[in-house]
Write a structure and sequence with these properties.
Number of strands: 17
Largest sheet: 5 strands, parallel
Radius of gyration: 25 Å
Shape: globular
CATH superfamily of the largest domain: HUPs
Structural class: alpha/beta
CATH class of the largest domain: Alpha Beta
Strand order of the largest sheet: 2-1-11-12-7
CATH topology of the largest domain: Rossmann fold
CATH architecture of the largest domain: 3-Layer(aba) Sandwich
Distance between the termini: 35 Å
Strand content: 5-15%
Amino acid sequence: MEKKKYFLDIAHMHPVCPLSLSHARIFVLADVWARWKRKQEFSVRFPICMHYSGSTVFKITSAVSNFLQKRNLNDSDQKTLDLIFNFYKIPKEHLYEFTEPINVLDYFSDVILKDLRSIQVSCDYNDYFNTTSQWYQEFVLSVFDIYAEKRFITTHNNNKSLNYPDSLFRDPAVKRLNETEFSPSTAKAMVTESLRKLDDEWSFERSDSIGTRIDEYVVDPMFDAEFLGIFNAIYPYLKDLSISQLNARDIFKEFLHKTENSNKKVSSVANELYSHLQEILPVDIFFVERHLQNWIAKRIYTETILLPPNISTHKYFFLGSITNSGQVDSASRGYGMTLSHLLEIVSPINARLSFLYTSDSLWRNHEWEPTVVEQIRKKTHKFINFYKILKNYEIENYQRAHAIINKDAITIESLIGEGRFKKVLHILFDELPKAIYPLIGRTPTILGKENEKLDILDFFLNYFEILCPSLREKLYEN
């Protein structure tokens, strides 16, 4: 029997620096959700890509070039070099690579991917791409062709922009938003306000940026990221189809027309892409930081124009950020700590669990407390000792032990669905060992009778496979 499909997505990274703790936390929370859905026997799509765009990278290359060529450094150069040497801690042997924008983006992409693998985030790494992909750039061009056909492109102060205020586009976008689920539910009002305030004053044309070029301008990164979900759905299938740079734009445009009107006759390649899209979409859940509500409003506009309601994003899960002394962390500005830094001082197990041990109220910002890492270290050490005892000694009252874990299993499933991972860890690390430990006797497990308590041991292994697979591996090995 074919597994049900589940598509989980996030706002993808601009790789101009290592991951901040806020961004790392989003990946971990999304990964727990992905693993939970796989446990429910879904076939999960969890894409990862890097958005090579924007102008921040030029500040880096300019500062490094001026430094290497011993030119006078302005204040911006000094600040950038301080980030590179003291915050990002870039080895000097890599500095010569940082004179080319793509090299910078490649370097930090590699750092991000390495760090995510270290904490066992289970993205679809085999389908990884970045937005310099010729396929993606042709896809962007085809989307803007559709925008032009629908007259969604307008002109403001002699610059091209998107016609958000026109009721022809706003009214359907509001309707689509009202059909979309939000967590927490109060986020809907926030995004609704952002959507109603979107105007046509922000041009999508930039002259100093990396990205897809349309005529003499480059598309602003805030105007092509919102349809990455559509491209993510079809990207794994592109390599098996006859799509070249010469025909890609036309095929993608045919595909988008077919998506709008399923009865439209298109080429076999476009039709195959359409079939794959129907299999993968909608995005079932989209994890995003709360401060990106304006971008989510833009994303809803885009999906209203390009997708029918049945394959538009089903649910947005809004998350607060990690703060440091009340200030939202930002790796690109040097605020807070990066995931790379955290992994230098703690194990991947404790790093990952620290993200889950943040406030149960995921919607709110969370002040990062360095002591949380030490709390987690102590809890994991204590739990590992408990698990060894559970494994090596007989349980004197199996009936009572089974009743305890069966009751808490229902609670844990509900808490995971609500995103209350701190409470889940409290049950697994504290409440369950406290309840089960008195039931463990002093008689070593009798050879041949290990299977009698496998379901109790597996209860813990199965939930740590979701929450922290490297801890599960450690428990299993012991």
